[in-house]
Amino acid sequence: MSVPPRFFRPPPKVTSAVVKMIPQREIPSFDVKGFKNFVSRLFHGRRKMLRSKIDEKLLKKAGINPENRVEQLQISDFIKLYAEYLEGKHKSKN
Length: 94
Fold this sequence. Notes:
It is built from three helices and two strands; from the N terminus they run ββααα. It is mainly α. The chain has a single domain (24-93), classed as Helicase, Ruva Protein, domain 3 (Orthogonal Bundle), CATH 1.10.8.100. A two-stranded antiparallel ribbon has the order 1-2. The longest helix has 19 residues, at 75-93. The radius of gyration is 19 Å and the shape is elongated. The model has no long low-confidence stretch (mean pLDDT 88).
């Protein structure tokens, strides 16, 4: 909900907001540090198309358009892409 400036002293020059956050009951189990590193590497040179950063086969397996840019992805896309990345990495070790 919005909170108008008149409710603050001194009144700010912007309208504030109250946000209610509800934690998820189930937390997905995966390597958080590895996921963070993966996403950080994707955001390096963020204006480049994903196909220049990741194999197109991997992107298509995750259902992501290779011509998208990283800022166009949703959180669920990052999770799917990371899962496919780990699966491909696991297969290459065997």
